[in-house]
Amino acid sequence: MHYEEFRREYTAGGLTREMLGSCPLRQFEGWLEQAVRAGLGDPTAMVLATVDEAGEPWQRIVLLKGLSHGGFVFYTNYSSNKALAMAANPAVSLHFPWNELDRQVIIGGRVEKMTVAESAAYFVTRPRESQIAAWASRQSRPVSARALLLKQVSVLKERFGNGEIPLPDFWGGFRVIPQRIEFWQGGEHRLHDRFLYRRQSDDSWHIEQLQP
Fold first, then answer.
1. Residue numbers annotated as active site
2. Which of 35, 87, 146, 210 is positioned for an S-S bond with 43, CB 3.0–4.6 A?
3. 10 is in an annotated binding site
4. Model pTM?
5. pLDDT of 55-91, one tens digit each?
6. Was 113 annotated as part of a binding site?
């Protein structure tokens, strides 16, 4: 295959300074709503990039579960590779690749752990099977066979029966507080439109246009 031959023009529309609001979170909510209305698969899927204590970067897809207290929220096992990396280095990046709309949103900031009350409030809204999966999985740890994981699921189903499944003490939420947010709109002939919001010391946002 000749990968250099794969190219297309970006024609979904331009982006100007006049089209942007003063708050990047409100701008993001508008773009996300448009992504949902456009019928994109997994519009809340975002790439989370971390750097661990050894200085090694890694990426994975997680799902955005809300915007609260000025940050982007997701949930995971506290012993997972991502959680351990964030404990060592709270500087992270998020990336929303809305390719069908010729759009990207890139976020840089610092992550903070959410309260137990916040995590519990979300946990009770999860499907029961997902609640059990959170208990069953020692996320990111090796497993010799999938059958062992499924056996653990069966054990937990019997343990909890039809009763309420409590929040695991090793599972909960994280919130990424943004310092930079870039909105990228593809343009014809690779002349893309890029606008970067930077948080100022007074928590206002400075907007600048970047060359493609």
1. 190
2. 35
3. yes
4. 0.93
5. 999 999 999 999 999 999 999 999 999 999 999 999 9
6. no
